[in-house]
Amino acid sequence: MNTSVVNNYSRIKPFLFFLPLFFLIVIVLFLYSNGALCADQYIQIQKDSFFFINHYLGQYPNLEYNLTQFGDALVFASFLSILIVYIPKIWEALLSALLVSLLFSCPLKNIFAVPRPAAVFDHDSFIIVGKAVCGHNSLPSGHSITIFTILTVLLFAFMPKKLKFRILWTFAFIIVGYILAFTRVGIGAHYPLDVITGSIIGYISGLLGIFISRKYRIWSWINNKKYYPVLILLFVVCCILLITRIINDNLIVFYLAFFSLAVSLYKIITVYVKK
């Protein structure tokens, strides 16, 4: 399986960056044509769509709040932790991709400094699930970046060979990605364009992570069993963090993530002991 993923990654070409860059240009031109390159107007042109989507998705607060946690790298990565043992190449790409996404997310949030919905609108005028986020860091959506970064790494790792299956697989990726990403609007944390922009940046981050892992062997040590004690320690720390999340929020997604990570921890300890 690891060899198959390596082969899939080797077939990826740089032209795949053209489409997301084109979409980013389209978004910028759209904002420019509407005089929305300033924060106030950026919010105003999305006001109606934000309230519509928020009202519709906010009818399922428990589901939305659980799904939105996939934008937390700790949670999403926990479900994929077992792949470190069986398909380490995915994790080599994933680690690079997540670092790239972080380099995009934090600076851009500070540069644009767009107020969150809860910092602009009356809290009684829309649905807020969980704690109201009132910072000036709405654009782009960090959760959306994380979701699409991870999904992009998985998309190309398991890309089918036949064209019709590739199309279906890609559409499934887009649908799942936006179902998860738009929960950020549903819980009242982001505007629609925050999510769309974040998804594009996440896709670019995922591609960059794959290209970096192809060219540089930065994370190849994770496939070496002598370094498993480091991974075991990291898994234990992550388990503790998830237990803290369970205590604080008691969401089912945290229980599932903890179970996945615990199984992976058991597996990696077993493999290490049998070396």
UniProtKB/TrEMBL annotation:
Keywords: Membrane, Transmembrane, Transmembrane helix
Phosphatidic acid phosphatase type 2/haloperoxidase domain segment(s): 93-210
Keyword Membrane recorded: yes
UniProt superkingdom: Bacteria
Keyword Metal-binding: no
SMART domains attached to this UniProt entry: acidPPc
InterPro entries: PAP2/HPO, PAP2/HPO_sf
Segments passing through the bilayer: 12-32, 67-87, 141-160, 167-189, 195-214, 226-247, 253-273
Protein name: Phosphatase PAP2 family protein
Upper taxonomic lineage: Bacteria, Pseudomonadati, Bacteroidota, Flavobacteriia, Flavobacteriales
